[in-house]
Each structure stands twice: as C-alpha cells, then as structure tokens.
Model the fold of this input.
Amino acid sequence: MTDVQFLEGARQWWRCDAGTVTAAGVLVVAVAGWVVGVLAVHGVQETRAWKPGEVRHSFAAELVGRVGRLDDAGSYRVMTAKPALAELVARLLGARVQGAVSGGPIAYLAP
Done:
C-alpha cells in the first residue's frame, strides 16, 4: 500500500467512541497485535449510521508514522517534525500492543 492508501484505509469507518479517539489525538494501527502505523487525529470528519443502532466515524487525520517491515527497525518512518509526537510515534512503531481494552476493532490503550 502507498502511504495515501494506508491513510485512507486506516482513518475511516470505525465503530468507536469518537470523542475518546479525538481527545487522544492519535489512532494507532496494529496488525496481529503489532503497531504498523500511527495517525495524528485532528477531529471527526464524518459520522454515518451504518445499520440501526450503530454509527461509524471517519477521522480527519494525517499519517505520522509507518512500519516498512516489522523485522527491520531501519524501515520504520517517523513522519512528523513535532518533537513530542515524533517521540511517541518512535516508541509505538513496531511495538506489541499490550493492555488494550477492546470490545471490537478499536482498542483503547492506557496512557
């Protein structure tokens, strides 16, 4: 996937507490429990009724970190110049997700 495709696939149509995601300011993308990307979330872009009693959200976001290959830390890219965010992204990329609370595709991580 290109970075644009990754961003488009990762930023939208989540069944979640959108306020919690926007308050955190980041959406961590994991595959099989490993962090492969990080988005900086700037707000909710759109909310849609998906089926009765269920809404999903898309976020206004930018890609700020991405893993090339999990077994090659040299392929990890931090794509922000903001020092605090860059430090967080560098810590997250390639990390194993632990201590997440989930009832579906979104898991909430403790700070």
Observations:
- The chain has a mean pLDDT of 91.
- The CA atoms of residues 37 and 66 lie 4 Å apart.
